[in-house]
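In response to the reviewer comment on reproducibility (Comment 2.3), we provide here a single inverse folding case reported in full, input and output, so that an independent group could reproduce the run without further information from us. The structure tokens appear first.
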């Protein structure tokens, strides 16, 4: 069959055919194992999601690994075998890097799903999610750097360049350190934040007079979601160097006031009783704080503070708004005359002029 073909070409064709048949057979066996695995874990959603994220990358690795075994077992005299081995090695390194990235991301997702933020475990769940997301992204960067470096080192010229760089690593390291200082600073800040946990995913922060939720934490920056759904991207180093408020650092419950200015004739007791009834009827109140106090006495009216508490910042905001509306409705309906008034006293005394000093106008006896 191959009598009229060059022996070198015939050897290359046979080696290639053998490699393809072996790779397809190994991939078919891998596919059967994956199918069997899906049947065994069909009722376990988390394990199924993990397998779905990794099965394609694993199949590519098995295919290329089988090809690589056949290429290395082939005779060195086969044409183009050296270039084929090198290209297959390069593809295998990239496939392994891809598989490692997929597995790392899948492990992070599994950790988060195994620890949902259910009632009573919000803090632990958010803490674990923040650490898992940060470590996953850190490993992703590390794996990508290692994979690309390994792929480049398969080229002799790049390997020789790397040896030369290592020989001059002293000055080069200093130059590289200064050039990459902002990136390295944020990476170290991210590591510090992941370990010390000054905030977690979905924590409520006050950032430069902005009320924000922590939406995403990466290796170099934090994405904050404002109340009007804007996104603020802040470098991690900012949180290391500047103070900020974390409203949900330990307990998520918060206190908040509602202030009202009312006339001095307004009785406080019925207002306090009405406020307590309103709190009892509202499901957002956590029954921790509910007080009514006169906190200021101004020139024309008194200021009353209604202090309340709720389970988290969102519920507290809506609770304050509802209480403010209900209290205004109560005062308008029950005590409409006791809203703030401006009082003035009319006097019939003549107005002093420049020719008549005020003391003379007020002290002059009647004729």
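Designed residues, in position order:
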């Amino acid at each position: 069959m191959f009598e009229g073909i060059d022996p070198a070409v015939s050897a290359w064709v046979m080696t290639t055919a053998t490699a393809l048949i072996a790779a397809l057979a190994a991939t078919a066996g891998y596919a059967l194992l994956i199918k069997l695995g899906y049947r065994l874990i069909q009722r376990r959603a988390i394990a199924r999601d993990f397998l779905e994220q990794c099965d394609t990358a694993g199949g590519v690795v098995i295919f290329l690994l089988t090809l690589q075994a056949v290429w290395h077992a082939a005779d060195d005299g086969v044409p183009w075998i050296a270039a084929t081995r090198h290209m297959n090695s390069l593809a295998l390194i990239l496939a392994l890097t891809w598989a490692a990235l997929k597995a790392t991301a899948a492990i992070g997702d599994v950790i988060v799903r195994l620890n949902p933020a259910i009632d009573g475990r919000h803090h632990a769940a958010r803490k674990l999610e923040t650490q898992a997301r940060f470590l996953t992204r850190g490993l992703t960067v590390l794996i990508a750097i290692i994979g690309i470096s390994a792929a480049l080192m398969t080229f002799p010229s790049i390997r020789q360049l790397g040896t030369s760089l290592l020989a001059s690593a002293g000055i080069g390291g200093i130059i590289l350190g200064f050039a990459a200082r902002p990136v390295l600073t944020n990476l170290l800040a991210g590591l510090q934040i992941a370990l010390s946990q000054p905030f977690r995913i979905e924590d409520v922060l006050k950032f430069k007079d902005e009320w924000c939720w922590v939406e995403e934490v990466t290796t170099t920056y934090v994405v904050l979601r404002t109340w009007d759904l804007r996104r603020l991207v802040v470098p991690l180093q900012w949180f290391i160097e500047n103070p900020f408020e974390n409203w949900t650092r330990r307990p998520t419950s918060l206190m908040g006031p509602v202030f009202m200015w009312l006339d001095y004739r307004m009785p406080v007791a019925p207002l306090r009783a009405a406020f307590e009834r309103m709190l009892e009827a509202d499901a957002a109140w956590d029954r921790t704080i509910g007080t009514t106090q006169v906190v200021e006495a101004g020139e024309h009216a008194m200021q009353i503070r209604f202090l309340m508490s709720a389970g988290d910042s969102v519920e507290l905001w809506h609770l304050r708004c509802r209480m403010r509306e209900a209290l205004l409705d109560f005062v308008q309906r029950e005590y409409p005359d006791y809203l703030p008034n401006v009082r003035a006293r009319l006097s019939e005394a003549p107005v002093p002029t420049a020719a008549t000093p005020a003391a003379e106008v007020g002290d002059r006896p009647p004729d």
